[in-house]
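Hi R.,

Here's the chain you asked about this morning:
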Amino acid sequence: MTTGDPLETALARLDAGGHAHLMGIGGVGVAGLARLLAARRFAVSGCDPAPHRLTRALEADGIPVAPAHSTDHLRPPPDWLIRSSAVPADHPEVRAAHAAGIPVSRRGEALAALVARARALAVAGTHGKTTTTTMLVQIFRAAGSDPSFAIGAEVEALGGVASAGRSDWLIVEADESDGTLALYRPCITVITNVDLDHLEHFRDLDEFRGVFEAVARQTGGVVCLGADDPAAAALARAARAPVLFGLSDRAEVRAARRRAERGRQWAELWIGGRRAAELELPVPGVHNLRNALGALSAARAAGVPLEPALKALARFRPARRRMEVRLDRPDVLLVSDYAHHPAEIRALLAAVRETWPGRPLLAAFQPHRYTRTLALCREFPPAFDGVARLWLAPVYAASEEPLAGGTASDLLAEFRRQGRTDVRLAADLEDLWAALERERRPGDLVLLIGAGDIEAVADRAAREWDTSPSHGTEPGSGWM
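And here is the predicted structure, written out as tokens:
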């Protein structure tokens, strides 16, 4: 059944069951959806032109994955075709499905249907939603609940990107990038912040904020809002039962008297104007403290007792590529992070300096999408303030075509306009690798930043530097 309403179409197919074919199944969001549909006894298949560990894991669990897109996947026709947002609406396989009368949904539409049919808790926000969702699943498990979940990152501590649990709770990371967030109707929602992004999809800030307002308005119960972000806090007017969290005095769930040491942090937890407990986190950064407060707010709304929630946070284990230490040797410390927005980079660097004060830093950044680089070009250089050795890799396109003003060369020119002459541009990832090999010094912290395939450089560095003898040039050489 296909209707004019994308959520109604997805709900009809979800309720009917059958065979679901997922295009772009190697993406973390689609891979997670595949697991949840399989748990609902769908026959699930998929295709992806770039097979990797996620597709291999799906195949090991009995979900066939074709190594390319093809209209052949529609013979015999599946009951439902679901596409990643990275797969365009006019792709030949998608057009063929429409022509054959096969219902087609985007990944976010299908996940919104799952949310509508569950006791669901959704975590949204421009930044911090992956970490907050990961915290919530670990909190629920510590409290004796076994929720189903879908997270937009690999979380080793949880066993992957998604799982079907035994309880009736479904905890999801709700992505705003393609506008499908506006379809969600959860029982509880967390909105960490609303910071303009995804200009490849949204026309302007008002349209971007609109999807957050929609999910706040459609939430059946409590909406937990980041009090320290004005745009998020302003959504209280759209929510049926708003609860503010953060460091602000107006937050109902707030932290005070924060202190940090060696990558850990502690703060007083105040709830409803009364000191409730001491909050401990094994991860650094004020941004992670805010994430924890958002998770605690939502857990409280769901009826989770405070004690197991605090214990879970004290032993919290983050998702991959969230200030992930890939290698720690006396001569080199290698850290990989997914940050790709200026606000995320600022938060990351503050946490790095707090954790390893005084450690010499060699950083490399791969911009993500031409549209984002163009829209936020002026904001990137200040985000790297204090980083004296910085390399830029070419933009990771994420299926976009090159855009004038949005290339890595354009970003380098903006650094120059802002007086930063200490930034270098790599021709490609191989050139970046050569630069890191050439420029790193004994004792450096090498920080690789970006949401694209710069992770391959981190993989290579972790592998080759771990087996090599101590390496490095004399301080000051090779950098002008």
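One quick note: Residues 471-480 have pLDDT under 50 and may be disordered.

Cheers,
M.
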